[in-house]
Amino acid sequence: MRTPVIAIYSDNQIVRQTLIGALGTQLATDLAPHKVIEFATGPALRLFLDQKGKIDLFILDGEATPEGGMGIARQLKDEIHNCPPTLVITGRAQDAWLASWSMADAMVVHPIDPFTIAGKVADLLRPALQADVVIA
């Protein structure tokens, strides 16, 4: 099994650390242990991608400033062919329409519940990783 790479974007270090703690080292027994790469700014995330960095799933904080995660999600979906799954974190359940506009594959609401986020991330990763499997 290949190690999945998860990108976490938030300008808030506490949010990033909360997400890393919630994800643990392995999401489920049918998934390999994952690697997390943190980004505190949109330009740092884009630079990583421009340098051909491989990401299997994006977790984007919709409450980040000055650049929100929903805008970044929309840009990723518009600009990356076969964009990996994106999960956005919103401030309120009523922001679901913004998550829909961003073309995110899933959303969760602050405060971050470890069981909810880990389950959603695992569900998003499984099909993405299975698409990599080549049967000879």
How would you characterize this protein structure?
By secondary structure, the chain is of the alpha/beta class. The protein has a single domain (5-130), classed as 3-Layer(aba) Sandwich (Rossmann fold), CATH 3.40.50. The protein has five helices and five strands. It is globular and about 35 Å long. The model has no long low-confidence stretch (mean pLDDT 93).
List keywords for this structure.
18% strand; 136 residues; alpha/beta
How would you concisely characterize the structure shown here?
The protein is an alpha/beta fold and 136 residues long. The protein contains five helices and five strands; from the N terminus they run βαβαβαβαβα.
Assembly annotation: single chain
Major β-sheet strand ordering: 2-1-3-4-5
What is the count of DSSP helices, taking H or I runs of 4+ residues? 5
Shape annotation: globular
The N- and C-terminal alpha carbons lie at a distance of: 16 Å
Helix content: 25-40%
**Structure summary, number of beta strands:** 5
What is the C-level CATH assignment? Alpha Beta
Largest sheet: 5 strands, parallel
Strand content: 15-25%
CATH second-level architecture: 3-Layer(aba) Sandwich
Q: Could you tell me the CATH topology label.
A: Rossmann fold
- As residue ranges, the low-confidence spans are none
CATH superfamily: Response regulator
When the domains are counted, the total is 1
Radius of gyration: 14 Å
**What structural class do the secondary elements suggest?**
alpha/beta
Q: H/E element string? A: EHEHEHEHEH
The average pLDDT score comes to 93
